[in-house]
Amino acid sequence: MTSDLRAPLLKRAEPEPARLVIDEAGFPFLDGVPLAASPRERAALALLFRRQPAVVPKEEFANVAWRGAEMSDEGLARCISRLRTQLLAAGHRIEAVYGVGYRLVPDASERPARPAPAPSNWAELYSAQAVQTYSFCRNLLLQATPSAVRMAIARLRQLIDEVPDFWAARVGLAEGMAVGIGWGLLPTMPAIDEAMNALDSIPDDVQISGRFAARASLLDFAWRFEEAGLAFERAIGEEPAHPDTLLAYARHLLYMDRADLAARQLQAAKLLSPHSARIGMTLARALIQAGRPEAALREAQATATEHPGELVATAFHLAMQALVAPSESLVGPAWRLTQGVEAPTFAWTILASVLAQVGHRAEAMDVIDAALICSSTSVGEATLYASPLAALGEKDRAAALLQAAFEQRCGMLAMVLRDPAHAHWIREHPVGASLMREVFGE
């Protein structure tokens, strides 16, 4: 550990008037003291907190805190009453809006609530440089582009070497590894081993947001879906109102081909984090997998519109259009995606898909052939060209790419197999049917 990354402990300032904060894991605090609350109460309070001062309708409590289970008006009232009793003494109140729902009313000082660092006061434990490095890496992971993920992983590894007990960095590394596997950037099993070791090194008594969801996601990439399901049960129990946990669980449900339930989880996540591009794109994916293409296209368009300039959102919208409503007008934008100095791999897969869907066979094959002979194209990235190949009628060649990924235990293969673009052929093809049995047990 380098000496300049750990700051001396600072003397705590005198406590200010009671302030409600909610940490990254969804745990509420009043002046730094944890608020005793059940998982359902924490979920309800987190929803009120994030939406304040707006009114939260009753159906949103049902979707987020009750997670789709039956919720009576009496049950919701009891939950709110228990929260109200604890908050009132601290100057906060929950107000009922007749016939609509509830809202959290700020305390009399009307100071904005501020996010609480979790699991402890990092500013007192670590230097500003260490905390800023971690925040920088979190922002990179939110971008979810291949180059950003690679940089985040490298920086997080360095941060862990320098400050071994910065536990949140270990969770961040595991999350980054999961995203990297999902992009086909990393060899799956070594990445899973490194990420699991990072999570296992965190003491059991340390509360870190995303810890259990990250483990569950890694189990999904290892195709250990039953274990992943159990891990997600614990993750949801620990963080019932955390949008990233709901997002990861929704992906698990997509692996299990439970797209309708995945869509409901993502809609709940969107209530908590309405401007997340990742949630919007995954919701669109779930909707099309559930057989709702028009709704999927609307969601993809809304996400792209809300995130102008974000290449991933733009590319995803183009891919959805090519699948749902192919049109010659998509060809120009698809080519422009590839025109940057360092166009990411996914830009070429989108171009190939657009060209294949609109009938530009020769151009599509040129793009696919060029990508597949490129030495930098990994076996995982190659699976993304199975979709345009299948659209062109080259199903044996598409199946061969998927089989190669299976032989290398490529973690991203499971989501590729569930791609709605493969639904028309995968189970009828002998190799495709075999892969569905081997990976999912179908």
Outline:
InterPro entries: OmpR/PhoB-type_DNA-bd, Sig_transdc_resp-reg_C-effctor, TPR-like_helical_dom_sf, WH-like_DNA-bd_sf. This protein has 442 residues and is mostly helical.
Structure overview:
This protein has 442 residues and is mainly α. It folds into 3 domains: 20-105, Winged helix-like DNA-binding domain superfamily/Winged helix DNA-binding domain (Arc Repressor Mutant, subunit A, Orthogonal Bundle), CATH 1.10.10; 125-231, Serine Threonine Protein Phosphatase 5, Tetratricopeptide repeat; 326-442. Helices cover 61% and strands 5% of the residues. It has helices spanning 39-51, 58-64, 73-88, 122-125, 128-143, 146-162, 167-182, 188-200, 211-221, 225-238, 243-255, 259-272, 277-289, 293-306, 311-324, 331-337, 345-357, 361-373, 379-383, 386-391, 395-407, 413-417, 430-440; strands spanning 20-22, 28-30, 33-34, 56-57, 93-97, 101-105. It has a 3-stranded antiparallel sheet with strand order 1-2-3. A 3-stranded antiparallel sheet has the order 4-6-5. A hairpin with a 3-residue loop joins β5 and β6 (101-105). The protein is globular and about 70 Å long. The termini are far apart. The model is unreliable at 1-17 and 108-120 (pLDDT under 50).
List the defining traits of the structure above.
442 residues, mainly alpha, Arc Repressor Mutant, subunit A, Serine Threonine Protein Phosphatase 5, Tetratricopeptide repeat, 3-stranded antiparallel beta sheet, 23 helices, 5% strand, TPR-like_helical_dom_sf, OmpR/PhoB-type_DNA-bd
Q: Measured on Cα atoms, how large is the radius of gyration? A: 23 Å
Q: State the total count of DSSP E strands.
A: 6
Percentage of residues in helical conformation: 55-70%
The tally of domains stands at 3
* Count of helical regions: 23
Helix and strand succession? EEEHEHHEEHHHHHHHHHHHHHHHHHHHH
* Sheet of most strands: 3 strands, antiparallel
Strand order of the largest sheet: 1-2-3
Structural class: mainly alpha
Straight-line N-to-C gap? 49 Å
Detail the poorly predicted runs. 1-17, 108-120
Q: Which of globular, elongated, flat, extended, rod-shaped describes the shape?
A: globular
Classify the beta-strand content into a percent band: under 5%
Average residue-wise pLDDT: 85
Domain OmpR/PhoB-type: 7-106
Organism: Roseateles agri
Keywords: DNA-binding
Protein name: Winged helix-turn-helix domain-containing protein
